[in-house]
Design a protein that fits this description.
197 residues; 31% helix; binds inosine 5'-triphosphate; metal ion binding; single chain; Maf protein; 7-stranded mixed β-sheet; alpha/beta; binds magnesium ion; globular
Length: 197
Amino acid sequence: MDKILIATKNAGKAREFARLFAPKQIEVMTLLDLEDVPPIEENGQTFTENALIKAQTISNYLHIPVLADDSGLVVDALDGEPGIYSARYAGDHDDAANNRKLLNKLADVAPADRTAHFHCSIVVVQEGKEPLIATGDAYGQILTAPRGKDGFGYDPLFYYPAKDKTFAEMTASEKNMVSHRGLALQKLLQDFDQWWQ
Ligand SMILES: O=P(O)(O)OP(=O)(O)OP(=O)(O)OC[C@H]1O[C@@H](n2cnc3c(O)ncnc32)[C@H](O)[C@@H]1O
Ligand SMILES: [Mg+2]
């Protein structure tokens, strides 16, 4: 079975990618499966730049094809915050603190103005090839209190109107069908087989 290395340390993303790649008969490995990983400086100005930094850092180190995802929550009333800083909005990868900060910042914002979207940029790189890049967005609203226990990150606060659920109230496959990550990967996979050969 083919394997792909995904340059992520996020267990929530790793679970979603494993499920998304299963029908392609491609096994997913992540940085969580490796012992020594070079430091990755996510200092790009855009999601796509950061995804390329992650993928290229690991591909230069391991000399194999690498996929990376950079994603985040873009809140309209906050001029796009937390955006590319989503993982470290309040505390570094502290989901509870990040969610609290988001709720505090939106305390005076009326429900109709709490629109937001999740964005995901996915890239695959391999030495000697042009990177393959795809993006996806999922549009919804930020609730005033968390709902649901599944998912990760901002999922309990992200209400997706078309399904009348937060992302944390969806099963993994329900979320993958409509999420920024699921949509970006669907697009990437359209060109993936040709690129992969
Ligand atoms: O960089 P890697 O190692 O992949 O893991 P990360 O968690 O740092 O990932 P990002 O740099 O792309 O930051 C994305 C943050 O945006 C949030 N986020 C992204 N996708 C999400 C999703 O599907 N559900 C909830 N929150 C999400 C969450 O806070 C993530 O930590
Ligand atoms: Mg990160």
